């Protein structure tokens, strides 16, 4: 007979009935046969819960356990009330309770009561211990939550796990906290159940005696015998069920979860773990068995000690034989594997991609990369991961580009061990050395006196600086120095390198994704780009903009102006110039000084400067000496401007000269913006402060 269709149709109704069934026990007197059936069901349910809790691998295999504890406790209390009503009313509480009473009491009321009290004490001890387990587990789990969450974030930042895995681990962590919190609350119900049982026992005994002697006209001895027997029987059947549930709770709370190499819960079967850890080898069994046999020889009962001892020795022999067989099988398997590897060619896998950005650090710098590290400024729980995440967000907000996660890994081969190396696409582009437990003091124009420290060059800009002790922080600040912690040094260096190399992260696929995103809100631009079908040229335009740190946030305008220019020319510098003019307001906004003006350095004799074009790229055809002298004069004028606290930009009259001058700056690693006169917004005040 297939009951599945019936269950599927009425399972909700059955569940609702089961939830409210406890209220029926409080209202309606139950006949003895129903009480017997309920006792049998309660014992069976308790055994199932105990066996399940003993064999589950981890807490998430029995997530409903707190609810099971709560509901079973409520049902048991309600059932206790029903049996108490039946006993003190002089009715028949069922044959199970009466038989249990006869089994425990056996015509000896005092002995029966003592046995029952012992069971009650055991139940109280286990319930109290389980409750304490729940409190400690919930508290420790809650205290460890921030550290575990940061550990997951660190693994995500380092590229050890992906976003989906991180979300899954965080969700499981939160569920674990909720589980142990609920278990702690349910444990209080278990303790309350013990006190309720004691109260009902006292009621059964005292009120039962009164009812038996007053209403039933029974002699004191007969009334005491009858109601003690029923009270003990009722208490025992309920205590056995409650004890199994309580032990189940203690087992679940006492589990120590371990993770395997994949971060998943290991098998945590209580019975298996006890056997594995308590009997790791046969030697312990041999010793225990031998001791029992020796004790039997010394005058203690020989048979009762020798038989268990012999069984332990036999179990040790079997364990030793099985381990030896396992080792032989493992050795044979290894031998077969080696033979297979020798006779078959192993497939060689080639990695077709490289890490976009990698920060390698010496092993002595590891403490600075812990999630809970602190710097000398007292910024607790700040790490390099926090700063790199913030840096990526700044680039996204300022320049409109999503840069990949920065992978951080230690490199024991770095010398000295406090060195760090920044790699872009697995090519080293910058490095530096940190002094452990030191901070870097960098002089500013406001320095009033020299500070005592180890002279050095800062690893980012190559300026003169000093390594000083952490306790000199306030002194350095008072004397006008900029003070950087090791984390700030590395993060600033990373920011500088990333800003210079942003264009390297613009792949053809990323450009296609950008066009797709723009097309969702501007479908006509997507249609036009599909007709042009020249993502490669658009990629060159975006790369040219990013090389000069021009934001591509206004991508719809960039794509629109690219399409317009593309219909007139395929010359890359001409297209870039056209795009720059369309977004000139955004470009110049970054160069405006605090007084709202744009300060310019113009070029003398522009008409004498020769520009050659090769494949649409404009290059300045001036000799090396001229370029060096030009840069020297430029540096002098910029230094003069900085004394006035202004940052000038170079302006060209000829549009084709602008990219040529900019490429010369790039070749000499000079960070000075170059704009065309056609890119100057009409509403921005500008002033020429020098001409070179």
UniProtKB/TrEMBL annotation:
GO biological process, one term: protein secretion
Subcellular location: Cell membrane
Membrane-spanning ranges: 12-28, 109-131, 194-216, 236-256, 285-318
Membrane topology of the entry: Multi-pass membrane protein
InterPro entries, A to Z: FHIPEP_1, FHIPEP_3, FHIPEP_4, T3SS_FHIPEP
Coiled coil: 318-345
This protein's record includes keyword Coiled coil: yes
One Pfam family per UniProt: FHIPEP
Family: Belongs to the FHIPEP (flagella/HR/invasion proteins export pore) family.
Protein name: Flagellar type III secretion system protein FlhA
Organism of origin: Priestia megaterium (Bacillus megaterium)
Lineage, top ranks: Bacteria, Bacillati, Bacillota, Bacilli, Bacillales
Gene from which this protein is expressed: flhA
């Amino acid at each position: 007979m297939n009951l599945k269709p019936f269950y599927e149709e009425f399972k909700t109704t059955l569940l609702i009935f089961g939830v409210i069934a406890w209220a029926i026990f409080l209202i309606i007197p139950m006949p003895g046969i129903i009480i017997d059936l309920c006792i049998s069901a309660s014992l069976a349910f308790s055994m199932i819960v105990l066996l399940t809790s003993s064999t589950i691998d981890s807490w998430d295999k029995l997530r409903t356990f707190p609810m099971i504890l709560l509901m079973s406790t409520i049902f048991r209390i309600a059932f206790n009330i029903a049996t108490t009503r039946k006993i003190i009313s002089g009715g028949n509480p069922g044959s199970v309770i009466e038989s249990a009473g006869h089994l425990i009491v056996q015509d000896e009321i005092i002995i029966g009561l003592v046995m029952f009290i012992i069971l009650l004490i055991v139940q109280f001890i286990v319930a109290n211990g389980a409750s304490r387990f729940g409190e400690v587990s919930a508290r420790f789990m809650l205290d460890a939550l921030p550290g575990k969450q940061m550990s997951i974030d660190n693994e995500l930042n380092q590229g050890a796990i992906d976003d989906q895995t991180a979300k899954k681990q965080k969700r499981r962590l939160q569920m674990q906290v909720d589980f142990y919190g609920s278990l702690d609350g349910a444990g209080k119900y278990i303790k309350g159940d013990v006190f309720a049982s004691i109260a009902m026992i006292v009621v059964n005994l005292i009120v039962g005696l009164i009812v038996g002697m007053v209403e039933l006209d029974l002699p004191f001895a007969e009334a005491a015998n009858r109601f003690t027997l029923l009270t003990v029987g009722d208490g025992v059947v309920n205590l056995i069920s409650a004890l199994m549930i309580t032990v189940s709770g203690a087992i679940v709370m006492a589990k120590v979860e371990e993770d395997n190499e994949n971060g998943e819960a290991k098998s945590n079967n209580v019975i298996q773990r006890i056997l594995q850890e308590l009997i790791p080898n046969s030697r312990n069994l041999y010793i225990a068995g031998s001791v029992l046999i020796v004790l039997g020889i010394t005058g203690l009962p020989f048979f009762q000690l020798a038989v268990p001892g012999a069984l332990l020795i036999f179990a040790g022999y079997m364990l030793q034989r099985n381990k030896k067989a396992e080792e032989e099988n493992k050795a044979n398997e290894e031998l077969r594997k080696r033979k297979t590897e020798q006779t078959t060619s192993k497939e060689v896998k080639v990695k077709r991609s490289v890490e976009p950005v990698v920060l390698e650090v010496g092993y002595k710098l590891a403490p600075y990369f812990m999630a809970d590290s602190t710097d000398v400024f007292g910024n607790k729980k700040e790490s390099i991961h926090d700063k790199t995440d913030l840096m990526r967000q700044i680039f996204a907000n300022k320049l409109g580009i999503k840069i990949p996660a920065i992978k951080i890994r230690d490199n024991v081969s770095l010398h000295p061990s406090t060195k760090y190396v920044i790699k872009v696409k697995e090519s080293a582009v910058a490095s530096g050395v940190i002094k452990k437990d030191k901070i870097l003091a960098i002089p500013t124009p406001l320095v009033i006196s020299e500070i005592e420290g180890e002279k050095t060059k800062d690893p980012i800009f190559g300026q003169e600086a000093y390594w000083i002790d952490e306790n000199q922080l306030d002194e350095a600040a008072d004397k006008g120095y900029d003070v950087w912690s090791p984390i700030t040094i590395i993060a600033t260096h990373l920011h500088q390198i990333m800003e210079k190399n942003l264009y390297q992260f613009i792949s053809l696929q990323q450009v296609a994704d950008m066009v797709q995103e723009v097309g969702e809100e501007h479908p006509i631009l997507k249609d036009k780009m599909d007709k042009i079908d020249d993502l490669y040229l658009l990629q060159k335009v975006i790369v040219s903009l990013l090389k000069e740190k021009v934001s591509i946030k206004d991508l719809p305008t960039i794509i629109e102006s690219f399409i317009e220019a593309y219909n007139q020319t395929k010359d890359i510098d001409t297209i870039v110039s056209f795009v720059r003019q369309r977004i000139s307001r955004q470009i110049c906004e970054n160069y405006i000084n605090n007084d709202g003006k744009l300060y310019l350095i113009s070029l003398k004799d522009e008409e004498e400067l020769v520009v050659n074009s090769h494949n649409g790229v404009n290059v300045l055809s001036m000799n090396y000496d001229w370029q060096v002298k030009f840069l020297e004069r430029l540096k002098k004028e910029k230094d003069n401007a900085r004394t006035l606290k202004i940052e000038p930009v170079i302006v060209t009259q000829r549009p084709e000269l602008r990219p040529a001058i900019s490429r010369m700056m790039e070749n000499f690693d000079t960070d000075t913006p170059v704009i065309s006169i056609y890119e100057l917004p009409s509403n921005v005040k500008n002033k020429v402060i020098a001409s070179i």
